[in-house]
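Weekly structure sync, notes
Attendees: PL (lead), two postdocs, one rotation student
Agenda item 3: pending single-chain targets
PL asked that the sequence for the first pending target be pasted directly into the notes so everyone works from the same version. It is reproduced below exactly as submitted, 188 residues in total.
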Amino acid sequence: MSDKESNPAEEAAARAKEQAEQDALPYKWSQTIGDIDVSFGVPGNLKGRDLVVEIKKTSLTAGIKGQPPVIKGTLPHAVHVDDSTWTLVPAPGGTKTIEIHLDKVNKLEWWQHVVTDAPKIDVSKIVPENSKLSDLDGETRGMVEKMMFDQRQKEMGKPTSDEQKKADILKKFQEQHPEMDFSNAKIS
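Predicted structure, written out during the meeting:
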């Protein structure tokens, strides 16, 4: 992270560039903290046997048989192959959509892209939908909320929750022991 704050115009330009890069991809993708969804359209007359979809632990290939794949590459993080699926669904206008669902191994990590050679998104700007956060069990949700809080604090140059807790304990101790000199104390 740079020390200087980016101004709103730079921020907007970065978002617009990122959006243009994502819009230019031959597929659409979205994610929750636990999974990735990828989709792209194909002609309506195609059946499952006309397609190639290979989901491996760290790679993905998908497209129409005999044509260059629509998406092919190394995944930035591992997926559970057995819990990842793909379906061919009818879409408006007589077309069909391939929907690929990837189940993340690490449920506490945002992906910057689906495959490593695709343009990245800025994951620090992701704000999970509260409904998705509420789907998590209490302990996982607490960890995710703490990670998000600490990430925001770091970006603003403020102490993380752990650093704040240590500072609060030291302050309380100092108040209880005014006779001790803490001027040179270092917290680690």
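Discussion points:
- The longest helix spans residues 138-155.
- Residues 8-122 form a domain with the Immunoglobulin-like fold (CATH 2.60.40.790).
Action: rotation student to compare against the earlier draft before next sync.
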